[in-house]
Every structure is written in structure tokens, then in C-alpha cells.
Amino acid sequence: MSYNFTVILLAQSLMLLLLWESASGFGLRCKEEERRALLQIKAELQQQIELEWKGMECCSWERVTCDPITGHVTRLDLGVDPMPGSILLNATTFLPLRQLRSLSLSGLGITMAGAGFESWSSLSKLKMLDLSYNLLNNTIISSLAKVSSLRVLDLENTAIVGNIPVKEFSALNLEVVNLRKNGLNGSLPYLGDWSSLKALSLAGNILDGTITSTGNS
Ligand SMILES: *[C@@H]1O[C@H](CO)[C@@H](O)[C@H](O)[C@H]1NC(C)=O
Ligand SMILES: *[C@@H]1O[C@H](CO)[C@@H](O)[C@H](O)[C@H]1NC(C)=O
Ligand SMILES: *[C@@H]1O[C@H](CO)[C@@H](O)[C@H](O)[C@H]1NC(C)=O
């Protein structure tokens, strides 16, 4: 009886220790392929953001979040206050991060030219993407057309002009879209067919008319 009780206590302490280890990041095992991809990303972005990424345990690096159980990178917060200067990004560098759910590259001055954002269609978990305050243009919308997991897209201040690209966004099932501070013009389109839409931010454009059939800001 008391022997069994001791065993249970020991097992419980062991479980607590394991829980503590994974909660504090100590038990995480960074995937080597993902660590190498992160170092490549660091090199690509080095003009604009200084990342203290070194060592083997990439899950404990600043701005990197891993799944506490699998150790895969799930989130990268590389956004900065908008920087002067520009970066030629190679989007394929991110592809080894196959479990990536959330990515912010805000303010880095990433240009459209040759970036190859189309390749992110194979990031099948990518749900939140923040590309605000980069040197993009309307082409970004068609480039992301096959990133079908996307639900939240931030394209504030990315030089998108003309009519609101409702068709492209509704085909992607986007729920939250920020298009503030772009060059959108003309009249507001009917948004009732964009059934996935929960929030659309349009301030800082030159639009006429009123929005119907949607939550909006
Ligand atoms: C982008 O990166 C991939 C993989 O790292 C490489 O194969 C490709 O040549 C690069 N593309 C450019 C334009 O640098
Ligand atoms: C967007 O920029 C890229 C790269 O500079 C260019 O090739 C493309 O034609 C531009 N697209 C639009 C719609 O302006
Ligand atoms: C809207 O913007 C586009 C692209 O800048 C421009 O070609 C067009 O003339 C503008 N239309 C109106 C109604 O201002």
C-alpha cells in the first residue's frame, strides 16, 4: 500500500518535471532542417533586422515559436517598424518550415521582384500572414492565390491600387484582411458573396460608397 503510494508520487513528480521542461523550452528539440532554414532567413534579412540566432536549439531563439510537443517551428515574428531600404527575399527559403502557421515580415522593405511568393502554396498550415509595409504591388494578390490555408492577411501599405480585389480574396476564404493605406479607389463593391469575411480594413484609401452585408472597419 505505502509502496504503491511512493511509486505514484514518484511518477507524478517525474511528470511534473517533464511538463516543466517542455514549458520552459528545455525539452524542445529543434529540427535541423528548420534550423538551417532559419539561418538562411537570418542571412537574407540581415540588412534590416539583427537576429541573435545561434546554437542548436532554434526553438529558444527570439521571435521563433515552436510547437511544444513536436518541436516544429509554428510562428515567426520578424516584423519591425517600417525600415528604409529594401530586401530581395527568396520565399523558397521558408519552405522547410512546413508547420508554419503564422508569419510576420512587416516593415522589412521586401520587394516583389523575384521573391516567388507563389511557392508558399506548399506551406499548408500558414494561416496568418503579415506583409504590411513592404515594397509590393498588386501582383502579391495573384502570387498568394494558391496559399489556400490563409485566413488572416495583412497588406497594409503595400502599394495595392485600383478596385478592391474581392474575387481573389473570397476565393481564398480569407476572413480578416487589412488593406489600409493603399491606393484603392473607385466604388465599394458588393461584399455579400465573400462569405468567409469577418473583418476588412480599408481606411486610408480613396473609396466611394458604403459597405453592405459585412462586419467592417
Ligand atoms: C532561392 O533559394 C532556393 C533554395 O534555397 C535556391 O534553390 C534558389 O536558387 C534561390 N533562388 C534565387 C533566385 O536566389
Ligand atoms: C510588381 O512588381 C514586379 C517587380 O518589380 C513587377 O515585375 C510587376 O510587373 C509589378 N506588378 C504590377 C501589377 O505593378
Ligand atoms: C484608380 O487607380 C488606378 C490605378 O492607379 C487608375 O488607373 C484609375 O484611373 C483610378 N480610377 C479612379 C476612378 O480614380
TrEMBL record:
This is Leucine-rich repeat-containing N-terminal plant-type domain-containing protein. It comes from the Eukaryota. GO terms for cellular component: membrane. InterPro entries: Leu-rich_rpt, LRR_dom_sf, LRR_N_plant-typ, RLP23-like. It is a single-pass type I membrane protein. Residues 33-67 form the Leucine-rich repeat-containing N-terminal plant-type domain. It is found in: Membrane. Residues 1-25 form the signal peptide. Its main location: membrane. Keywords: Glycoprotein, Leucine-rich repeat, Membrane, Repeat, Signal, Transmembrane, Transmembrane helix.
